[in-house]
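From the shared-data thread, chain only:
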Amino acid sequence: MTSPVSTTSLVSRNPAAPSDVVAEFPAAGAPGVAAAVERARAAQPQWLSGGAAARSSALTAVATAIEATAGELAGLAVREVGKPFAEARAEVARTAAIWRYYAQAPYEPTGTVHEPAAGPGLLLTRRRPHGVAGLITPWNFPLAIPSWKAAPALATGNAVVLKPAPEATACARRLAGIVQEALPDGVFTLVPGGAEEGEALVATADVVSFTGSTAVGNAVVRAATARGIPVQAEMGGLNAAIVLPDADIERAAAHIAAAIAGYAGQKCTATSRVIAVGAAREPLREALAEALRTLPVGDPADPATVCGPLVSERARDRFERAREGLHTLAEGRAPEGPGWYVAPTLAEKVPEGHRLLSEEVFGPIAALLPADDVAEAVRIANSVPHGLVTSVHTGDLAMTLDALDRLDTGMIRVNAPSTGVDFHLPFGGAKASGHGPREQGRAALEFYTSSRTYTLTP
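Structure, as tokens:
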């Protein structure tokens, strides 16, 4: 069957050189998405019945192919989404590791056996795939996020239809080509597009996984819930770093600066609020200001770059609006040139109600906030609608363990940047940062399957 072709065109540009058009694609359109889901639904039963060995072999082949094209994939991520070279190489390595990790999942137990309460027979539980997994992914991790959604979905016997962010369509298309080489026809399909295609996928898939903004994520959850299908949504963050007086201040400042400005702050786990407790304030103030001033900003293709450009002109405008009315403590140096570059910024004395304290900017900017003690620091950290990740910097782990239980975030990182993902453990946030089951690790295998209970009597 030939998919209907949309007349809408998507243009992907190099954030470091906006005149460089990376790729241009026709959008799939809602009919194209519906056709892709129909093909996936037809292909899924054979993919499942092919058995664990076939699925494991296919996912392993994907991992091997990603490793073989690591340089090409990293270069494409640098060019299309402005990811600094070192981070792009790390993302490609993580992407291959994700496919290898889930290549073992087809051999995992899919259920349990129980004795009945009375009489002969058996009680069984068994997990089965939903059918077609609709995946809607952002541009900031153009290879890893589609992979950590697709790999567990495929490992458990689902077919996949992927709708990537328009800004990362070239990366998604290259990844899709690699995956499709290893899988039967129809089991993995890419549908380029924007809001229309995303809505169509939510309206037709059997299970939906979304990563993106809180506003769009909430709409996805409402639409999927109305259909009665499983849905998970990983959304925004307004993450805090808490620094106690007994912390290694220089080390904490280095971690926090990287978490503020690494990849120009374009991560849901980036730090946007730095809470200095008691006597930590002055030394941290100086150390963090210096770390941000000297952090390498520039061409993402340069291996030394930590902070590259923002992904679009609109993103740069949003960053500049967020800076309005702020008392700036420190600024990095944005390079001159045509790219969408901004200066990493640390603000202090931020007035209550300022957007920096209530909205995710998705740029290299953070507020330095004072707290008299740990209790006040926890209160400040918990005072926002989001609850994705908090980093805590201290030398007293015993005291920290008590405070950790009072932080209302899905992830807590001690003496480490707020950024960073362990793909074999659950990933997700609380409050407005997430809805539904966690991603990654074994949690993903449970999300992409449903449990059935069987009663067998002689």
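Residues 1-5 have pLDDT under 50 and may be disordered.
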